[in-house]
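User: Could you check the structure of this?
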Amino acid sequence: MFGGSIVALITPFRDGAVDEEALERLVEFQCANGTGGLVPCGTTGESPTLTPEEHERVVALTVRAARRWAERRARGRCR
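Assistant: Sure, the predicted structure tokens are below.
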């Protein structure tokens, strides 16, 4: 059903807030290097410190970044 690694992502912060640009770069790095699945707000320890709104935002950003990467890849614009 699943193949490859499934990575629990860290949630990067800058000045006390989720660093959205760094999260997007992290997702793109994982996708470009063959990660089979991503787990935002997973087991890296920061999830209990996120507000429900931050949690939802991190998940949404992760899905959006992975989807964009997959679409670019399908068009031959990334590795």
